[in-house]
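Exercise 4. Each item below gives a protein and its sequence. For each, produce the structure-token representation.

Item: Hydroxyethylthiazole kinase (Oceanobacillus locisalsi).
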Amino acid sequence: MDYIGKIRSRNPLIYNVINEVATNFAANGLIAIGASPANSHTPKEAVENAQHAQAVVLNLGTLTEERAEAMLIAGKTANEEGVPVILDPIAAGGTTFRTEVIDKLLEKVQFTAIRANAGEIAVLGNVFESMKSPDSTIAEIDPEIAKAVAKKYNTVVIATGKTDVITDGVRTTFCSNGDAMLQNITTSGCLLTSLIGPYVSVGEDVYEASVEVTAAYGIAAELAMKKAEGPGSFIPALLDTLYFLDQNTVNKYKRLEEW
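Answer:
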């Protein structure tokens, strides 16, 4: 399936309730891949934005009470409208407020996919008590933990690390695409979370779409690093690579292993 071609032909609207640090980067990344971003944090716009979107992305960075309210409204509205909802539980368990917001979202909203780093997925799987920052303290996730989280919340889990683990609780794929430079720029994971939106909006199978976007993003990072000298030049190179990326390139370079 030509995911990138479909995204560019359909130009899906992706509604992000996203942190301040990631807003610009994620929006530019969505535009580069062929989607259309809508960013709003006010609860007063959450219903209409969710109704009009082809996917809703809820990102817990720079969390506020207003954002938390907007996320809950947007997620519930998207469920009512049959719109995919993606969660990025940044620094899961880091504070009491953050924990309460994540728990409430997981209770009230059915998530299509959860994208988080290995440490955050370990928190959701009750292996770690908390994440104090978005930086994972572990490089790898036990795939059984990721599977358990997927089953618990009836969702697809994309756990990123040295090797990314994508699972729906039954099927599991390892993705070894990517570059270490992603760890040297802020909100690289946030951009991947937002990119899941257009992929699942055009895909027929959420799990397969999640595998594809994880590989495509990793490949884009690899190709960008061939042009970049460091983190400062890597960011525009990554956006350029996403803009010129096509399905044939993804199919050529993706490194996936079923588990």
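Check: The chain is about 50% helix and 15% strand.
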